[in-house]
Structure formats: structure tokens, C-alpha cells
Amino acid sequence: MSQFKNIETALIHGGSTTDETTGAVNVPIYLTSTFKQDGLGQRRQGWEYARTGNPTRAALESLIAELDGGLAGFAFASGLAAIGTVLHLFSTGDRILLSSNVYGGTFRLLDQVASHVGITYSIVDTSNVEAFEQSIPADARGIIVESPANPLLTVTDLRAISAAAHRKGLTVIVDNTFMTPYLQQPLKLGADIVVYSATKYLAGHSDLVAGLAVVSTEEQRERIAFLQNSIGAVLPPFDSYLLIRGIKTLGVRMDRHVDNASRIALWLQSHPAVKHVYYPGLKSDPGYETNRSQARNGGVMLSFELTDNRDIRRFFSSLRLVTLAESLGGVESLVCHPASMTHASIPREIRLKVGITDGLIRLSTGIENVDDIIADLDNAINLSKK
Ligand SMILES: *Cc1c(COP(=O)(O)O)cnc(C)c1O
Question: Under 8 Å CB-to-CB from 289, ≥6 apart: which residues?
């Protein structure tokens, strides 16, 4: 539980973000690999070796735990390092369920890495909870869900899916990268573990790669601490500092991100050259009501398809302000082509089956002036006419 009533305050003052020794209002960057011991077995305040624990990283870890209402947080070298470490909670013979449209790298981790140690996976449709529960295989031990999911922004009822998964004894892992604890707190909706690519909104400035995990039980805390230290994919102190700094402004950034995204979604929806807009913040979106019941708003990410008389290559090359790049969640607007970029590691047949068409465009709306973003998109759409 957070010591603060409102998350806007916890973002700035949560965790152990002041320095006990000097009173510095920012956590120092502890560039040290090891810590002096006063005698055999006498470690000062428990610090021993910086893979096991570093004060800057520990400040970040206590902050994310507080923001998500979890028992403990862990910081990793990337989002995939966080997910990969959490997957070590499972063993040979276990099956992990993946909600359709999970991040391509998560799919690849299950498909080409975990499979080598005998952990299998199935892709499941989490939109119909009853059908989902009926179809859970007997060897399933865990489920990884994203809501809204990447890149079609499909919404899963996290409360209902967690309850159904728990009835069958599954561990529920939610990848909350797209929403952050500012917009959605999965542990409070029944999930067991939350993971983040903190590279995205949490850091917020496209200047680092980081991952976080938050757990809810003592058993998971002990096991993930052991795995984090044993595998060693930890976040360095400088990046931990930058991430703490990014999180302080998460609230104001997200407010502007979401305002811009909502306006752009409405504008795209009324554009004659736009076939479809995927954004759970639109009242017409099938996920609107469910998303509203579990999140503060529809978030920032949106995807859209242009009508068939548009050339998508010309659209991308005509953009001047919005940058064509992988990733998302930075202050600058980024656009990408999931079929050839973020989701290229998923075979085309599977991609098409889940609705990731070759014409799909994903937009990570930045915090620039919204009229400037719209003008750039409008110009590129106009120039993309075949
Ligand atoms: C980017 C991303 C990841 C992977 O995180 P990295 O920090 O790039 O390793 C995982 N899940 C989602 C939803 C992402 O967007």
C-alpha cells in the first residue's frame, strides 16, 4: 500500500527516494560494485555486492512497488530481462498462456527460448472469459496478459480473467507497459505479478532501456530476488536514477499524452482516408466500457488503417515531425509499422489471424502541440494517395 493517498504525490515522494545519510532530495547514483564490510559477516545496512543490491536501484524498486501497491519491486536491464526472469518461476512441462497480440519479443521468448527448456505456450483469446476458462489446458501454470494489447489495443477484463485463471491455479502476469501504474494498477484488479518495459512511458524520454517487475506475495518476493541475483540482468545505477527522474513527471506527461491521443483518435475517425481506428478511449471501441471499469482512461497508444487507395510506404516517408521508429512512450511522437517492425518476429499467418494486417499503423502520441502532430499526419495521409 502506498503511504500517499494520491498517485500524483507518490510518483514524486514514493519509495525511499531521499538519501538518509545526507538528506539530498534526490537519490545519489551509487557507482560502486561492492561495499566495505566492517568484519566477517558484518555488512553495513545489508549492502554487499551491487548485482545483489545497489541503493540507487533499491530506491527505484521500492518506488515501483509502492506505485503498483505490490509487496516488492525489481529492476532489470530491459523489459524482456524482467519478463525472462519472471518466466523462471516456471519449469519443464509447464504451459504458459499468452493473450493474443502480446508484444512480439514476449512471443519470441516463449516460442524460441523457453521452449528449449520444455516450457510450452498457447495463444488464447481472453475476450470471452467463459470460453477462456473452459479452454484452459490441464498443464497451464501461468498466463501473460496485456490490456490494452499491442498493437490492436484489444481490452481484456483483467478482474474476470484473473479470477478465472486463479480458479485453475494459474499465476497471472500482466504486462502493464502501455498504461503504467498512473492509468491502471493490475495487482488491485487481481493479477499476481506486473511487468513493465520501463523503456517506454515510465522512463518517458527515449533515452534508456529498462524493465521492472512487481510481485504481491512473500514467496514471489524471495524467488524473484533470488532469480534476479542468480541470472544477473540487473539495471545499472545510472539508469535507475534516470528512471526515478522520469517517473517523477509521469503524471503530467501522461495527462498531456492522453489528451493528445484522444484528440488525434477523434480526428482520425472522421478522416475520409482512414478505414479504422483502434483506441479504447473512443466510445465506439468494443473495449471502451471494460477499459473504463479498470483504467483511468483509454491510454495513449492507438493504431489505424488507411483506406485502400493509400500507399503506406509513401505515408511513412512523407512524415516530417512524427518519427518512424520502433518503441513508444517517449515525449516525441513515434509511428511504426507493426507487420514489418515490432511484430515481424510473429509468423505472417499468426499475425493475420489476430488482425495485424500489413496496412496497420501504430502511433505513440507524444506531448508536442497536438495541432502540429495532426497537421503532419494530415499532410502525410494526403501525400500517400495512390
Ligand atoms: C517494449 C516492450 C517490451 C520489451 O521491453 P524492452 O525494454 O524493449 O526489453 C515488452 N512489452 C511491451 C508491451 C513492450 O512495449
Answer: none
